[in-house]
Amino acid sequence: MTLLPKVGPKPNSYDYETNAVVAPTGFREYDARWLFGDDLNYLGVQALGLGLGTYIQERGVKPRIVTGHDFRSYSINIKNALILGLVQAGCEVLDIGLCLSPIAYFGQFDLDAPCVAMVTASHNENGWTGVKMGCQAPLTFGPDEIGRLKEIVLGGQGVERPGGSVKLIEGVQQRYMDDISSKVHVKRPLKVVCACGNGTAGAFAPQTLRAMGVEVIEMDTHLDNTFPKYNPNPEDHHMLMEMAKVVKETGADLALGFDGDGDRCGVVDDTGQEIFADKIGLMLARDLSEQYKDATFVVDVKSTGLYATDEVLKKNGATTVYWKTGHSYIKRKTSELKALAGFEKSGHFFFNSPLGRGYDDGLVAASWILAMLDRNPGKKLSELKDALPVAYTSLTMSPHCGDLVKYEVLERIVKEYEDLFKAGGEILGRKIKEVITVNGARVHLDDGSWVLVRASSNKPELVVVVESLRSEDDMRDLFRKEVKPRLAKYSEIGSYNQEI
Prior knowledge:
Elements: H1 14-18, E1 32-35, H2 42-59, E2 64-69, H3 75-88, E3 92-98, H4 101-110, E4 115-119, E5 128-134, H5 143-154, E6 165-168, H6 172-181, E7 191-195, H7 205-211, E8 215-219, H8 237-250, E9 254-258, E10 265-268, E11 274-275, H9 277-291, E12 296-300, H10 311-315, E13 319-323, H11 327-336, E14 341-343, E15 349-351, H12 362-375, H13 381-386, E16 392-393, E17 399-401, H14 406-422, E18 426-427, E19 430-436, E20 441-445, E21 450-455, E22 462-468, H15 472-488, E23 493-496
Parallel strand pairs: 2-3, 2-4, 3-6, 7-8, 7-9, 12-13, 12-14
Antiparallel strand pairs: 1-5, 4-5, 9-10, 10-11, 14-15, 16-22, 17-23, 18-19, 19-20, 20-21, 21-22
Helix pairs in contact: 2-3, 2-5, 4-6, 6-7
């Protein structure tokens, strides 16, 4: 039997119950995400599992795969359908149950399994589902792997093989928590808000942080898959503001927030100010480069330009490489360059040996933030932040743009900026110094300020970030007087999820 996806069946129909439904748009650059229902059904998930298992066999790696799922009402059933397809393909499935994405990645090392399939919609709203996949720890799939998987699944090329099995594995979660907490022992008294947005991290983060020796104030750590307050997304302004409120109420030293599958970490300092992940990354790079001279760091194109000019990093011989946004891209580049760490503005942090295993992990990031504070016992987090050169960076803003048109629209925007640069044009009175097009258009101005427009890799959106080295008002102007009116000319671009 081949599970050849069919276009058109709608829920609550005979066709829907007897055919695989897999929308092609769900195959993103480095993972797979669908709205469960119209875009994907259980037979479609089974087809995905058969396709993934077939691709693993095609790659010639041992067909031994760790599976896990996040805390959504439908995730366990989706995972079970995925497992059915993997078993059909002849894979040995090691199911570790409810977990964070980094626990599934840890499971690859812990259980000697080359492959992983984690069912999670990450920080997306309820209704979304997806799978983060890999077959070479600690890496996850990029465009080439996803592209081939898409061909197999949509083309009905899945191959059934004998020898498939599934086994439930216990204990991986505890070994993961013990592994992280064993590396950091905080000696100074620290009061830490642990914010989980009622997502999966609530089952693992508080006790892991306590095991490092800090006092933990739990915030929305009980699991509730309706997400009654807000989506667990530490890049979202709502969650950050709630974290700030609890810091001020409790006199905490900082707040650490985790997203729905625990691979990202957001930070609020002792004054209640959020510190975006690229700035936290710069603080960590300063701290770590003191201990590991001549270290290399990888950062994404949404990140602050301060890495390139920072005097502490220069003094310690550190090198910074800007690369494509996306957890899979930064993870791969960090591994390829044997960099000490990689930082992504969305809150993904990657630490290579001896600090970590190379995959993105919010709790590992939290551990090294706490270790940094422990190495600076006389300083608050806000003081470490204030020691950085001043840059005013915006929130990440995402205007709607359909998956089928966003890349073509982006091409036109990139060309606009390239033509403006070639013509010697200006933005708000400043010459354009360069346009980096490795991932959309990052437009650098002659005073060090910049604007970025790129396509989201996992949602029907564009992504906008701006940074000014002049003032907060200038940062707002770069968005309101430059990027927003430029994008408003495109009828395909809709409203923003949030604006400065």
